[in-house]
Write a structure and sequence with these properties.
Blueprint lengths: L1 E4 H4 L3 E3 L5 E10 L8 E8 L2 E6 L3 E4 L3 E3 L7 E2 L7 E2 H5 L3 E4 L4 E4 L2 E7 L5 E8 L2 H9 L5 H8 L6 E3 L3 E3 L4 H6 L12 H10 L2 H10 L2 H10 L2 H10 L2 H10 L2 H9 L3 H10 L2 H11 L6 H4 L6 E2 L5 H10 L9 E5 L5 E6 H6 L23 H11 L3 E5 L5 E6 H11 L1
Parallel strand pairs: 2-7, 16-17
Antiparallel strand pairs: 1-12, 2-3, 3-4, 3-9, 4-5, 5-8, 6-7, 10-11, 10-15, 12-13, 13-14, 17-18, 19-20
Helix pairs in contact: 6-8, 8-10, 10-12, 11-13, 17-18
GO molecular function: magnesium ion transmembrane transporter activity
InterPro entries: CBS_dom, CBS_dom_sf, Mg_transptr_MgtE_intracell_dom, MgtE_N_sf, MgtE_transporter
Keywords: CBS domain
């Protein structure tokens, strides 16, 4: 196998089977629907016009590109639709390094040639280092031997092709090129949020179009609050509603409150009735109060419920993980009477009633408690969650530790 920088191949001479120069390389093309890394064809500039040299027609690369056929057998380029052109679509473009979890700019592309029958040329990775930039900048300006000696002194930063995620703002072209968010969806939401914040508005919108709604919701919750409303406003109403439905109700309420009332109402109208009701109720509270910070996604059972039933409820709980640290005990009037930490539940006899596991006292706050009081309670009692109860003692919601962290971060 041999390595070939894309910048060396662009402009390289092509010789047909007779040994005559048939033209020069203008582009290298991949057809992702067929193979996401294999070069499908070379686009040539010839005296007869633009021609397409299929990868199967490459005999080898040595002092130029040798063909197995006569120049007359090169096909005319009818349409480049569905093709990823390496020079046009990658060089100097931003891509996402899913392994390094960051946005980077492509300086060159590294190709790998396999001297098989037929000759195989594949994309090995993208060069984001100084070597790739210098190679392109000095090509044709410095003698080849001197340039190669200089390049050897520079570091090469290659990102393997399997860790590259392309950013394509044209929805139709994303479909044709089979660009999906599969790689991005494996990232931690916080890392994905960092990537989103680095992108330009059009690129952010394009990225959200490729993500699963649940992944998009988790990432959006981690994005800087100043950008959240802008991102949501860039999406069509139906798609925005799908994402908001997957968000924690308290986060969704805070976000929708930042939008113009008309736009917020349009999104709410597209949501499922149950999710819409939860969010609308939370939007009624002041953001800087306990009620404005709480979520209505929590687990509550009667004190007489058995451990086995509580464990089964845990298996089917689709709320945030942060809310799973505690099961709250309420009476028939929904008044808070106790709490059971998850650790106690795991170690208990499955037939035991939850009342036997309840802690003797529980810390709570009023819906009107301000943010400072909430933060002090978390700090003083080392809480993971804090129940919010009204004047009658009814459990109305729960504040989680990540809510407090977000609160404190917004004050920095």
């Amino acid at each position: 196998m041999a390595n070939y920088p894309l910048s060396d191949l662009i402009g390289a001479a092509v010789y047909d089977s007779t040994g005559a120069q048939a033209g020069r390389v203008r582009e290298l093309a991949i057809v992702p629907q067929q193979d996401v890394s294999k070069i499908a064809a070379l686009v040539l500039k010839t005296r007869a016009g633009v021609r397409l040299m299929a990868s199967a027609q490459i005999a080898g690369i040595n002092g130029g590109i040798k063909a197995t056929v006569a120049a007359t057998e090169f096909a005319e380029l009818g349409s480049s639709e569905g093709m990823l052109m390496l020079s046009r679509d990658l060089l100097d473009q931003q891509i996402i390094d899913t392994n390094g979890r960051k946005v980077v700019r492509v300086n060159d592309v590294e190709l790998i040639g396999e001297a098989s029958d037929p000759f195989v040329l594949k994309v090995g990775g993208v060069d984001i280092g100084a070597r790739g930039a210098a190679r392109r900048l000095l090509k044709g300006l410095v003698p080849r031997a001197a340039l190669n000696a200089f390049l050897r002194k520079l570091s090469s930063k290659l990102i393997p092709w399997e860790f590259v995620d392309l950013i394509e703002t044209d929805p139709a072209r994303r479909v044709r090129l089979k660009i999906s968010g599969d790689k991005l969806e494996k990232l931690h939401p916080a890392d994905l949020a960092d990537i989103i914040e680095e992108l330009a508005p059009a690129e952010r919108e394009a990225l959200f179009q490729t993500l699963d709604e649940e992944v998009a919701a988790e990432a959006l919750e981690e994005v800087d609050p100043k950008l959240q409303a802008s991102i949501l406003s860039s999406l069509d109403t139906e798609h925005a509603a799908d994402i908001v439905e997957e968000m924690d109700p308290d986060a969704a309420a805070d976000l929708l409150s930042e939008l113009p009332a008309e736009h917020s109402e349009q999104i709410l109208s597209e949501m499922q009735p149950e999710e819409r009701q939860e969010v609308e109720e939370l939007m009624e509270f002041e953001e800087d109060t306990a009620a404005g910070r709480m979520t209505t996604d929590y687990m509550a059972l009667l004190p007489t419920a058995r451990v086995a039933y509580a464990i089964e409820m845990l298996r089917h709980f689709d709320g945030p993980l942060e809310s799973m640290s505690t099961i709250y005990l309420v009476d028939k009037d929904e008044k808070l009477v106790g709490s059971v930490p998850l650790a106690r539940l795991v170690l208990a006899n499955s037939a035991a009633p939850l009342s036997d596991l309840s802690e003797g006292s529980h810390i709570s706050c009023h819906p009107d408690a301000d943010e400072r009081e909430v933060a002090e309670l978390f700090d003083k009692y080392n809480l993971l969650t804090l129940p919010v109860v009204d004047d009658s003692g009814v459990l109305t919601g729960v504040i989680t530790a990540d809510d407090v962290i977000s609160l404190l971060r917004s004050k920095l």
